[in-house]
Design brief:
By secondary structure, the protein is an alpha/beta fold. Helices cover 34% and strands 26% of the residues.
């Protein structure tokens, strides 16, 4: 079966690449993936699937494939389909034809890999029991609540009842390699908003005002003590203030500053503690300088974690399919956020990174970048990985 999967993934390479380039040229932003969904459905209709559902969680599409060996477990395979609001500068002949929209996070590649996986598995359905759900998910980039949650709310995990979920993301690892670890893969990604209120006065008479800019500056510095002095140095944590907005004129003491930032954390207990830690520091710093402050923390995507049993299945199946030299177990997770984590709140999940870097795109593999170029030779590797994992999981 290993050779069949590999040969089939390579056999359909050209048609899957053509599909990928068509999607890449016609990107659609989250919640607006109308034509993308239609294009996916047209391809799925060519396969011997048992059911195709549309309009799931917005513009989501679900293909259902029942195995030929009877009843069994159900595995959900997920790909995100939305783009980013960016103008492409890659110079590729199949670059985005839409100004201000680009597949700059590889979702077109994920979509193509899942379609290819559906093609492969539909030909070998007699080799496994149970069910496979091919889930083409909208609005992954729509934080703080992405399309995964919308699809869950629409019952994607219920009929048939899903036992586990699998997903992947293109990554700046070498083409041909996959990367995953036991436990946390991606961080919880929360946002905070801070408003510092002071009192305006003429800049030449600061004693008559209360300087919100000075207070905000102290707050920015003090927030970093959470990382350096409140948390174990062996516990990963990021607290970043990304924007500071305040002041109207050079000779006026500013009376209001608004700060916005993000927290990235891999520990669920620490994630629960962070709002109070931030609030305590912000309010005490503001008060000490005569200001008041309001703090709002907005929960984003949760920690994306690999279930230990699914990790073992991946190690066995992907090492066999790709070779041990092509399976990487990174020491650390990524501080990025991923809404696949919503599935992880309901069922065991497995998430992996797919190498896409080579000599043809060196220096152009940064995600969310207008110059992003993905080496398409990663596509059959992704198809092999998803198909091999599926067979191992469903046949256990």
């Amino acid at each position: 079966m290993k050779d069949f999967i590999k040969n089939k993934a390579n056999e359909i390479y050209d048609e899957i690449v053509d599909f990928r380039r068509e999607i890449h040229m016609n990107p659609e932003i989250g919640h607006e993936e109308v034509e993308t969904a239609k294009r996916i459905v047209r391809e799925l209709e060519k396969l011997n699937l048992d059911e195709i559902r549309t309009g799931v969680g917005g513009h989501g599409v679900v293909g259902v494939l029942k195995g030929g060996k009877g009843e069994g477990k159900t595995l959900l395979l997920r790909a995100d389909i939305d783009c980013l609001p960016m103008t492409e500068k890659s110079g590729l002949p199949f670059a985005s034809q839409k100004e201000g929209l680009m597949h700059a996070c590889g979702h077109d590649v994920h979509t193509s890999i899942l379609l290819g996986t559906a093609k492969v598995l539909s030909e070998i359905r007699d080799e496994f029991p149970g069910n496979v759900l091919f889930v083409f998910q909208p609005a992954e980039e729509a934080a703080p609540e992405g399309g995964a949650q919308y699809m869950i709310d629409d019952g994607v995990l219920d009929d048939p009842k899903v036992d586990a979920a699998f997903a992947m993301h293109v990554w700046n690892e070498p083409v041909g390699k996959v990367s995953f670890r036991n436990g946390a893969m991606m961080a919880q990604s929360d946002r905070f908003f801070i408003t510092v209120n002071g009192k305006a006065s003429h800049a030449s008479q600061p004693d008559l005002g209360v300087d919100a800019i000075v207070a905000a500056s102290h707050i920015v510095t003090a927030l970093q003590t959470i990382v350096s002095r409140n948390i174990s140095p062996f516990t990963p944590l990021v607290v970043t203030v990304g924007t500071i907005k305040g002041g109207d004129r050079y000779n006026v003491i500013c009376d209001k500053v608004v700060l916005e930032g993000t927290v990235r954390v891999y520990d669920k207990n620490l994630a629960e503690e962070m709002p109070e830690r931030i609030k305590r520091i912000v309010e005490s710093q503001a008060e000490s300088l005569g200001c008041t402050a309001d703090v709002e923390l907005v929960r984003g995507y949760s920690i994306t974690e690999n279930n230990s049993e699914l990790f073992d299945i991946a190690m066995k199946s992907l090492t066999h399919q790709l070779g041990a030299e092509n399976v990487i177990n990174p020491e650390f997770p990524s501080s990025g956020g991923e809404d696949f984590s919503a599935f992880g709140k309901k069922v065991p999940t497995f998430f992996m990174w797919l190498g896409m870097e080579s000599e043809i795109n060196e220096g152009k593999t940064t995600l969310h970048n207008p110059n992003l170029i993905v080496d398409e030779r990663c596509i059959p590797v992704g198809i092999e990985s998803a198909a091999a994992f599926t067979l191992e999981f469903l046949n256990q």
